[in-house]
Amino acid sequence: MSSNSPTNLAERYAFLQKELARLEHAYYALDNPLLPDSEYDRLYRELLDIEAVHSEWITPESLSQRVGGVALKQFDSVTHIVPMLSLNNAFDDVELIAFDRRCREGLHLDHVDYAGELKFDGLAISLRYENGLLVRAATRGDGTSGEDVTANVKTIRAIPLRLTGMSIPKVLEVRGEVFMNLNDFRKMNVQAALIGEKEFANPRNAAAGSLRQLDSKVTAKRPLSFFAYGLGALEPQSWLPATHEELLNAYIKLGIPVCSERRILKSVAEILTFYKDIGAKRDSLPYDIDGVVYKVNSFAEQAKLGFVSRAPRFALAHKFPAQEALTTVLGIDVQVGRTGAITPVARLAPVVVGGVTVTNATLHNEDEVKRKDVWIGDTVSVRRAGDVIPEVVSVVKERRQPDAKQFVMPLRCPVCDSHIERLADEAIARCSGGLFCGAQRKQALIHFAHRRALDIEGLGEKIVDQLVDHNLVRTPADLYRLGFTALANLERMGEKSADNLIAAINHSRNTTLARFIFALGIRHVGEATAKDLANHYRNMHALMDAKFDDLLLVNDVGPVVASSIMSFMGETHNREVIEQLLASGMQLSVEEKIISDAVAGKTFVLTGTFPTLTRDEAKDLLEKVGAKVSGTVSKKTDYVVAGVDAGSKLKKAEELGVQVIDETAMLKLLK
Ligand code: 5U1
Questions:
Q1: Per 3-state DSSP, what percentage of the chain is helix, strand, and coil (rounded to 5)?
Q2: Is the CB of 334 under 6 A from ligand 1?
Q3: Which end of the chain is more exposed for a tag (fewer CB within 10 A), N or C?
Q4: What does the alpha-carbon distance between residue 252 and residue 227 come to, in Å, rounded to a whole number?
Q5: 117 lines ligand 1 (CB under 6 A)
Q6: Contact (CB, 8 A) for 516 and 527
Q7: In angstroms, what is the span from residue 294 Cα to ligand 1's centroid?
Q8: Atom of ligand 1 nearest to the CA of 86
Q9: CA–CA distance, 4 with 10 (Å, rounded to integer)
Q10: What residue owns the CA closest to ligand 1's atom 14?
């Protein structure tokens, strides 16, 4: 800022309000961030700093007011001067064709234009703007009166506190839907589970629960969104455009979010195409919808058609199949993932959810089964939304039968019979037969051959897939028994490539103990820990026989890593594979550490392309002399070594004042 004189500060304050409103609108309503979050945060903090000195400048539309205020005892009641109507529903094409006929006959027209839009699965809301300022927000309630949720709605960043543009009516009641994006909903539930709070069954409940919070500070933390689709009170009436489509376009100009998935439909054929197109898109939309809505586009024609009881004759909701349905749990099995994660899965009596027959639903993990209290034989609500796996959302406890059985986590892996272990700080139970388990086979082999592990060039994902699928390889030890003919017969593998792969496998026998330990894929044993273990134990059998307390003496090994090693080594299957590998002629060297005083214990971050060394080579050199190499720049970083095209890490180093050197300077330090 150029000056702190009051006039300029006031100008700056006004500028910040406008600029932040513009950024919030772009981010939350248009899904189009204009600046990095850090820049937004900086401007927002500046606004707060000014308000701390000039509290008299704070108005209800200040963006700082979005954080929520004092908790209410109850919501006030609000009367809707223009009632909030509901929609008639159509569940099939016949009902839709009848709707179109009624509209045409009622209007004495051959054809009618309809505005097609989405039916959001959220909570209807009315927003009242007076002279452009948001003065009240109310829920639908019974359509005639609802609850005053103004304080809560003000925390929703997609909703403008002040309208923008040139043509702002004196009174405007915007009707629309508050909802929660699926991603935000999932993140919020994960967060809730972590802190032991109640999870919401679906985004609709989450949106409704969040909006009906008496404490707006709680609502402020909930990621709510909004789309407008209708109109309540309006003054002056002359502001009203001729069509619904133009009204929504006018909303956009005022800064009100409107969904872009809409289309003008000129015939039943076009209506049905719209329904089909949106139905096909439904699973990939970022929010839940439960249908589409058709409205006669012309307001004059809408007025002619009028209403029947509480629903307009000019509009129709065409519903999609429900995304939740009730069914029975026939059993609970466990599945083993590629990383050994054990997931309980409910086997269900077949049920159609969202138009698809569902027979299995994930229960995520053991704690989730307990929290949702799912028993075998229970009636459960199953949800299938977006492209995610169907899940059990809740149990209908009243329907539990006396013969229902509780789920017990099995002790042994259903694929390889190794022990199932659950580390103290983890929600996920895992199969401990990492080197042997059929479910983990491909992942284990890919990791084993990785460049930073045994570095078997040419043993990529596609070859591993074929080796496992043709039953040529079951464990890493089998790699060392592979013959030329078996390899040469694989798809896309010529004789030359087979020769090269055999050479690479043979070459990998000469490696370091640290790489070998890392290659085993023991959970929580990364490269650095593998190096520490190799330096400490210096031969494989010593590590295989190490006791828990002994492991704790190794640099950077705590109880979690020690338990993970103990359960891995405690599995007979894994020990057998290690013995077979050692017997196949592995030469495991232990590197002598040459400690360089200049860099020992110092943390380096490598970024960009270096003139002579690869990043891996630079990392190895640094670690050999006792330096640590990290992937992220922080205040604790001692040096950032930057090469050509260094990006954000270099920028961060400069921001934090971390010393930046090039490859030559790094090599000098190492000398
Ligand atoms: N898209 C859309 N959803 N929806 C819900 N339009 C729409 N219109 C509604 C409702 C309840 O009511 C009209 C009567 C304004």
A1: 40, 25, 40
A2: no
A3: C
A4: 10
A5: yes
A6: no
A7: 9
A8: 11
A9: 9
A10: 85
Distance 31 CA to ligand 1 centre (A): 23
Residue 114 sits at φ, ψ, to 5 deg, of -115, 150
| Strand ranges in 75-216 using DSSP code E only, listed in sequence order | 77-79, 89-90, 114-120, 123-130, 133-139, 145-147, 171-180
Do residues 375 and 361 lie in contact, with contact meaning Cβ atoms separated by under 8 Å?
A: no
Q: What is the mean pLDDT of residues 217-234?
A: 94
Enumerate the β-bridge partners of residue 224: 180
Locate 507 and state its tokens: 């070459």
Confidence of residue 355 (pLDDT cuts 50, 70, 90): confident
- The token duo for 517 is 């330990």
| Confidence tier at 593 by pLDDT (50, 70, 90) | low
Strand boundaries in 267-423, DSSP class E: 289-296, 307-308, 311-312, 315-319, 324-336, 341-353, 356-362, 375-376, 379-383, 391-395, 405-406, 420-421
Q: Please give the single-letter amino acid code of residue 157.
A: R
Q: Whose alpha carbon is nearest atom 6 of ligand 1?
A: 229
Distance, CA of 593 to CA of 536 (rounded, Å): 12
Active-site positions? 119
Cβ within 8 Å of residue 402, ≥6 positions away? none
* Minimum mean pLDDT range among 44-48, 189-193, 618-622: 189-193
One-letter amino acid at 293 equals V
CB 459 within 8 A of CB 505: yes
Is residue 375 a contact partner of residue 405, using CB atoms and an 8 Å limit? yes
86 within ligand 1 shell (Cβ under 6 A): yes
- Tens of pLDDT, residue by residue over 531-548, are 999 999 999 999 999 999
* Residues whose CB falls within 8 Å of the CB of residue 531, separated by 6 or more in sequence, listed in order: 514, 623
Q: Would you say the CB of residue 315 lies under 6 angstroms from ligand 1?
A: yes
- DSSP 8-state secondary structure symbol assigned to residue 264: E
Instruction: Report whether 245 contacts 153 (CB < 8 A).
Output: no
